[in-house]
Amino acid sequence: CCTSHAGGPAAPGGPDGTTRQTLTIVFLCVLWYIVSSSNNVIGKMILSEFPYPMTVTMIQLTSITVYSGPFFNLWGVRKYVDISWRYYFKFIVPLALGKFLASVTSHISIWKVPVSYAHTVKATMPLFTVILSRIILRERQTKPVYLSLVPIIVGVGIATLTELSFDVVGLISALIATMGFSLQNIFSKKVLKETGVHHLRLLHILGRLALFMFLPVWFYVDLFNVMKHPAITTGDYRVIALLFTDGVLNWLQNILAFSVLSLVTPLTYAVASASKRIFVIAISLFVLGNPVTWLNVLGMLVAILGVLCYNRAKYFARRTDTLLPYAYGPKAGAGGGGGGAGGDGNVGWRANPSPPSNLLTRSLIDAVQCT
Length: 371
Description:
Its main location: membrane. It is found in: Membrane. The protein is mainly alpha-helical. The protein is built from 13 helices and two strands; from the N terminus they run ααααααααααααββα. It has one domain (15-322, 352-368).
């Protein structure tokens, strides 16, 4: 996780600047790994004692809503763009709905099954993305992309068959959450492209909207049960502190993920993200101590290897698309020769010297959703 982004600003001060940037990236990656693994472990601890996944989700959405505005203004993140009400209800509201449902089902999964297994199932995200992109966008993938799905399916299958703490509800919840994150990826990239909204502002918009949309639902489903829970009636500050910490860590890991991605290439980020998943699985096994077999671990590693292969195949497929030579000059006439508006009738060819900046934008949501 130490390759600077090719399209980013040049490191000031020559070698010293490059070293400084490399150290910054390494520091952010390590911090991201620690925050993400802590968030997952604390989430499991909370749900084991306080089995209210919707409440945990609402606290995380509250954290996004409360902390993002002041922090983004301080950080200089560009302001919101104008979005028509029609577009808002057509895309933003469904995205907020999907964010809430995916988050709740994700919390149900780590409540019902070990964190390590839940994260292994989340490795199926590329499979859902490929299928849904084909159905919704009619998007075809390259052969290497399709082949990369094989180890993902095999790895998750091995992990499922050998999982000692298997639970059907946990598996289904993890799959629903992963499919929800995949749908968010597809439509979030569409919104980023069509509106020009900053990706962090989109995170804030969706978190805030999801919070207020589902506040009445939370009142009806969870509030009275939560108020009667021993942790609340007895003033168990440990659970309350864990809930607060979980909200802060969830918000912080989103910020760190975007920060790392802004400094490295999408491919480097993909490797770092897959490595982070290994780190989360390892830490959860060490801290929470859920029993596993070597075959179970093998399944997890094969699935993550498949994710790495998928990200690599997708990255090079995108580079091939953006680096294809293109013609400039007049349009071809009816007879197939040169003709059209302007120019001297010659057609020149050149390769795009570097991938356009939207190569990074197209990877932003793809890389962060399924944390």
